[in-house]
Predict the structure.
Amino acid sequence: MSFCERCGRRSRLQLVEIEGARMYVCPDCSRFGKAMKEEKDVPSPVSTVLRPKPERSAKPDALTKRSKELAEDYPRRIQRAREKKGWSREELGRKLSERVSIITKLENGEMRPPDSLIKKLERTLEIELMEYVEEIHMTAGAGSRGMTLADFIVYKDR
Ligand SMILES: [Zn+2]
């Protein structure tokens, strides 16, 4: 409790601004002024907004390499070509000097033919088993995102 700076009445005082002057006044007198917050003018704390780290440059450096690889659908290609020629697996095996079990495995995708056999198959069946793939080799740093090279292999000619 203190004395009103305007009327002198003993009262609970309030800080108001009356005609540009700040004073502590009673509730009655406060009607004549603008209520002020009693807080001192504390400069707002230095803003510590953390800026998100800038994204790394959008595209990681990458090297593109073109290479030929065994087509993923080689089992289908072999089987289709063989059937087109009207050969049984036994016949194809004989032409390739391979066991029937090998032909079966190839057509079931259970075995990847070695290079020498790929060439024989291509020649005998007149098909292409190899196809170009574009491999993009990620440079160091980009590899830490849990991506495997397979994510970057783009199959062509599909
Ligand atoms: Zn007063």
